[in-house]
Every structure is written in C-alpha cells, then in structure tokens.
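Student: Hello, beginner here. Can you help me understand the protein record under this note? Any guidance would be welcome.
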Amino acid sequence: EYIVRCPGRVNLIGEHVDYSGYGVFPMAIDAATYVLISRREESGIDFYNTDGQYPPHLHKMDDEWIGVGKPQWYHYFLCGWKGVCERLGVQLNGLNVLLSSSIPPCAGLSSSSSIVCASALATLAIYTHETFSVISRAEFAELCAHAEHYIGTEGGGMDQAIEVLATKGHAMLIEFNPLRWTAVRLPETAFFAVLHCGKTLHKAATSHYNERVVECRIAAQVIAKASGIKEWKLVRTLHHLADALHKNANEMTEVVRELLTEPLYTKRSILSTLEVTET
C-alpha cells in the first residue's frame, strides 16, 4: 500500500555531543532504507528483508511489546511502529513489511535509525493515509528519537533529526532543547567521499555507546555539585550545566580543570560524591 524511503547520514561536525545537548552538523546521504508496507487480515507483523542474511520473522501480538536489549533487525521496525501507535493511541496488528536497505549496517551511517524513521513514517501513512499533515517534522523526529530507546540505546536525537529534516543539497545545523535546525547550502562543486574502513560496531548490541552517554551525565552532575549549584541533581547534560553556570565552551574548559581534580574517578568516589548507592 505504501513505499517509504529514509536516508542514512554522515556527521560533518560534532561527534558524540548531541546527547550532551550540543549542536551537530550532519547531512543525509544517497544510501537509504526502503519499507514496503500493507495491511494483512491475520494478526501479527510479517517481516521480510531483501538481504538474505536477515531471515523472515512473524511477530505475534500475544503480549504488548516493551522493547528488547539485544535487537534483531526487525526490532528496529517495531520501535518506530510502537512510537507511532502510542502517539495515535492505536495498535495496528496485521501488517506485511518488506525492508530493503543500501546503507552498510554497523558502519556509522545510521542504518538502524533509518529503519526506525522509515518504520514510523510507514506506520503513520498506513493508519492515517497522511504524513506530515498530522504531525510536524520536528515532532516526528523527536518521536523517532524517543522510540529508538526501545532497543536500549540512549541516543541524543541527531540521527533521527537529519533523516527527517534533510534538504537536498544542504547540510543541517541541528540544535536541541528545543529541537531547531538551520539548512546550510553545500557548494555545488563539493564532493564528499564516505569510506567504510571495514570494521563494524553493532551499537545496540554492546554497552559502549550507552557508557559514554552515562559518563557524560555523571560528569555533568559531579561538576554541577562541585560548582555549588543548588539543584545539581536536576542537571542532565553538559550543555544544561554550562547554561546553569552561564559559561561558554572555552570557559567550561577552565571550570573542568579547576573542579575535576582527581586524575581518575572510581565508581566508589562517584557514588560518594553524588550521594547515591550502587543499588
């Protein structure tokens, strides 16, 4: 009934800063995910993938899907599907889904977020027969970012934002809290070579990515407390911290040097500093 396309992305400026609240400068790429979707009379979602390494799967609706820690390929579709169903207050039980992608998996080009966004848009289309007339692009990007948390990653929202907001011939300055964006036209003579080194990392299948996110949150609270911020427990990101201290990035460098005096922070010292227990 519907065919949906969602691009991958590369990030030009601002690696691993979106989940700390800072702006990034990505652009979409030609490689993309395609989702073909239709209704089916039987219950469940019947998944197929044009890539033979990803086997078919029939997802039954016996219980409410609440997410998964080690995702299979179809779980990324379920993220977007569930996000839209929650937004609309409905649940579509009978669907046929065929997925095809030209984005190299686990290569840092946001193949997983592309599936989530394509899934969400396909679900929205098949239920409402509309797309961005029932939800703004900004709201939709934030919906997709939240929905991807169902497979366990604590992303900052860059991937979903550029994949939803991208404009042909432009990179995008994306800022957060609230989400806002500025299209920057790329020179017509510019050429971007996106090369795959051959190494892969399944972000959602390891704790590496989430560890960086948590470490940044912990650092923000440790500095906030040392700075004398009364409501330091409410500080969630380094950008939030900088705003609370009325400091720019250069000034924050000096704050860090002054207040983070230990060469190495152990789990025990962090628990003591933040007045929490391991449990």
Remarks:
- Residues 208-226 form the longest helix (19 residues).
